[in-house]
Amino acid sequence: MKLLYSLWIHAFLLVVFCTEAQGEVNPYEELRTLKSEFVAFKAFSILRTDLQLQEADSVLKNIEFIHKLAKEKKDENLICVYYEMLGHYFSLRYDRVNNLATMNHEKAIQFAQENSLNEQLFRQNFSFGNYYYTYFKYADAYRYFRLSLSVLEKLDENKVANIWQYFITLSRYFYDIKEYDTASHLLEKTLAYNNKLAPRELFDVINTLGLIALHTGKTDESLGYFKKVLEKSNAVMDSAWMGIAYGNMGNVYAQRHDLSKALEYFKLDYTYNSQPSGDLISGLIALKRMAEIQFQQGDFEQSLANIDIYLTKMEKKPVRYESLVEAYDLKARLLDTLSIEDGQLVTLKEATKYNRLLSALHSSSSIEMAKLEDEKANYNQFYQESRQYKRLSILLVITLGVAVSVFFLLLYKKSKRRIERLEVVKTEEEEEEYCPLVILSDKRFHSEDTNRKVQISLELRQLLSGNLMNNRNWEKFKVAYLNSFPCFFSDMMDKYPELTDSDLRLLALINLNLSNKEVADKLSVSLDGVKKAKQRLKKKLNEHIVYN
């Protein structure tokens, strides 16, 4: 017995020890093994769970782990996530817009900007916008949602983790503020990730496209979208979305004034969504719509029964105030029609209360909407200026491109003409190939003139005006000469190895068909000196022929 008691004590202590040890593990430890782009999603999931399980102070203490992990891993992205989680923590704790939440969201954006973390800058602007959107601050949400989209334009959206989830929230926001074109554009972008969307995400996207079509008077198109939602949700046996699809189809027929068919679909919505697996809010909205149609059809008692269920179960949140006012107003009319005095006073009081709350909400909403209109105007102006700047930039690039193209075209044509001229010169040279033996043995050897034409370059012609006995001038002359007669000197040296530098000068000038007087001028010698030099050259060439 003592042994059993001892074992029980040890087991108890072991359980306590293990529980305490487990309690010491920070829930954000999971972030260690994740890539940076997935950290924020996981951190927010941990935060929500942590708030449900622990005291607020403990949750705040746990968040500090993210900051330590950022320093440990030297990951600047984690710093942004740390500030973001603090922002979420204070907004969830107080369930309203507050200075602490706002300050931390601003810090996250500032840190991303200062460190050029563009993907984080996109996320943090989105997160800040979503924070305002959650608490119906549409104007402030607009500013940051638009900033997030502007940043996204500069990024490769395929590298942003779960980008479709951002698109879904953004499209819902722009749908709420009736910017249907922007909402549709974002929804179409979301559908590009069809294979990555969860079933309910896909249903939500298609359903919202249907609602946009319904609000813009395209009832046939909207009905097609809702039927698609019904087909896809039925395939996975999702009763909640099957009910939502039926309810929206009922809205289509109500807009077409086909009340009997609309009532039929609203009943289906309520049937599916009143089940434990259904969406209670959607079911109650369908029940209210049923009551309204039944009132129009004269089925007052059933209408009253349905509106009572709606008022008992519907949440009393600001987002429902307008619907609640309509419901209490309908009940007051039903009680009056049925001559039921019991409950009329209470109903009128409730109607007045929610009407007053709705008026206050509308008052603040009107301010928000005014701010929103101002934000829209500012954004549109900025967008137009940006587009104008882009157009000017494109025009400038095109102009520069044309100018560069014209420049290179002219350069090409000039080069082509030069090549053609060189080819002509080369052809003429080939046709009149020079043979020094023939020239030196010709009877016109000492003549002052000849009819043989020689074409030379402008550069060579200019160099002929200088004294070729100057070594510097001669070297320049040789380079220019080779451009016109590439193989002249090498051919001479191959045939007559005994030739000296002076011999080559003389042969080069003879090849240019210069007179003795012109040769004498270029070499700074007398006319007789040129004649004697030619005689010596002829003798040297003839001796070479004899001995070889």
From TrEMBL:
SUPFAM superfamilies (UniProt xref): C-terminal effector domain of the bipartite response regulators, TPR-like
Keyword hit for Signal: no
Membrane spanning stretches: 392-412
Pfam families the UniProt entry points to: TPR_12
GO MF assignments: DNA binding
GO BP: any one term: regulation of DNA-templated transcription
SMART domains for the chain: TPR
Key words, A-Z: Membrane, Transmembrane, Transmembrane helix
Signal sequence annotation: none
Protein name in UniProt: Uncharacterized protein
Organism: Sphingobacterium paucimobilis HER1398
